[in-house]
Amino acid sequence: MDGYMINSAETEAAIKEAAAHYEELLRQQVARQTRMEQGSSAKDFSSMDKIVIGVIGGDGIGPKITAQAARVLGKLLADEIASGRVELRNIEGLTIENRLACGKPIPDDVMEEIKACDVLLKGPTTTPNGGTMESANVAMRKALDLYANVRPVCIPAEGIDWTFFRENTEGEYALGSSGIEIPGKLTMDFKVTTLCGTRRIARAAFEYAKNNGKTSVSIVTKANIMKKTDGMFSAICHEVAKDYPGIEADEYYIDIMTANLVKTGTRSKFQVFVLPNLYGDIITDEAAQIQGGVGTAGSANIGDQYAMFEAIHGSAPRMLETGRGDYANPASIIKAAEMLLRHIAMADKADRLAAALEACTQTEKRVVITGGPDGATAEEFADYLMEKL
Ligand code: NAD
Questions:
Q1: How far is the CA of 315 from the centre of ligand 1 (A)?
Q2: How many A from CA of 335 to the centre of ligand 1?
């Protein structure tokens, strides 16, 4: 009772307002879990007459690198585009200027166009620090229910073949722009883990392991500290693991796993990882860096109805400000295009692209990107890659 008595009337009012806000958040999240309980089934691309691939440039270097990835897709899919089975559709307007002008992370007209596509290739988008504007990525993951962020990292010379399944719609990100502030006193954010949200990402990771001859899935949490949210994440992953008898489910805390990934000798034993959102966000950048830099990795955001593929780096606004935009490396978004092809059941084309990327970035390396005028431009790199297809 003492605590209440030392508060000013303004603080008391702010606490009451925050409590009402919190109740509203709880209701929204329970409703989201209830919607998930109804379930949905994934699209079968191999039987679809027409597949629409939306191409979104984004901000900063985004339009420059995305245009090159779209050229590569255009070449690989030339026959399908000519026959009308595939359409590459440009979507304009997902820019920071537009988003700020309409006060929405994704303007309504852009969202409508996005929802008319089956899969998306998306350039990085800028998120302003502070304020309440949600990241376009987080908004898209929520709106299209892209619950699995899949990031492969492969270093054949070291025997590393990792695939990360990062939960993409919950954790700290679900309510990251909905925190509470008691002015002059404190701020508080929320983390949410739902039963269905965890079960579907766990299922995706174990299914992937089963279908790709993997023998272990590492569950990574901080369940010793985040007892409710990560505790439930861990328990559900173990429950799902029981349906996959040939696959060992081991468990690590995020801090030691971060160390394990830089420990040569130990790290090559890991195969598939399943993690809540924030840990997955951080550790996949670490893993990409081990592979050779964030420019070398692509990222898939997969849901049952939609899927979005992107580079794992950001919009690099300083490259544009310093006149180096044309020298941005398109390899990461081209890697994402490879993942997109695999997702739409065009594995043969994805394999061709993977082989060309490997030659251009690992073995032959005739055209080298440095990020500045002493190296090649994104367009020159894409020309080289297309020669190799
Ligand atoms: P960043 O990835 O944009 O840049 C980090 C560093 O890497 C910079 O030095 C940059 O010049 C370099 N870099 C990045 N991509 C490159 C490329 N293709 N070629 C050459 N160099 C490259 O990260 P940041 O500076 O932290 O973020 C900038 C903006 O991007 C922020 O607004 C952030 O919110 C946003 N962002 C978006 C996404 C996304 O849309 N998926 C992801 C991360 C960050």
A1: 4
A2: 16
d(CA 160, CA 226): 30
Rounded Cα gap, residues 271 and 373, in angstroms: 39
Q: Decide if 219 contacts 283 (C-beta within 8 A).
A: no
Ligand 1 center from residue 312 Cα (angstroms): 8
Among protein residues, the one with the nearest Cα to ligand 1's atom 44 is 314
Q: Which ligand 1 atom sits nearest the alpha carbon of residue 319?
A: 11
**How confident is residue 345, by pLDDT bands cut at 50, 70 and 90?**
confident
Q: Residues 197-205: what's their mean pLDDT?
A: 95
* 2 has pLDDT over 60: no
Mean pLDDT across the stretch 355-364? 90
Q: Which residues line ligand 1 (CB under 6 A)?
A: 61, 65, 124-127, 137, 295, 310, 313-319, 328-329, 371
Q: State the average pLDDT for the chain.
A: 93
CA 317 to ligand 1: nearest atom: 28
Closest residue by CA, ligand 1 atom 5: 316
Atom 37 of ligand 1, residue of closest alpha carbon: 314
Nearest to 72 by CA among 375, 333, 347, 370: 333
SS3 state of residue 42: coil
So what's the pLDDT on residue 5?
57
What's the CA-to-centroid distance between 52 and ligand 1, angstroms?
Answer: 27
**Residues 252-282 as b or e (16 or more Cβ within 10 Å = b):** bebeebbeebeeeeebeebbbbbbbbbbbbe
- What's 360's DSSP letter? I
The pLDDT score that the predictor gives to residue 174 is 87
- Per-residue model confidence (pLDDT) at position 1: 44
At residue 329 the predicted structure's pLDDT band, cuts being 50, 70 and 90, is: very high
Q: pLDDT band at 4, cuts 50/70/90? A: low
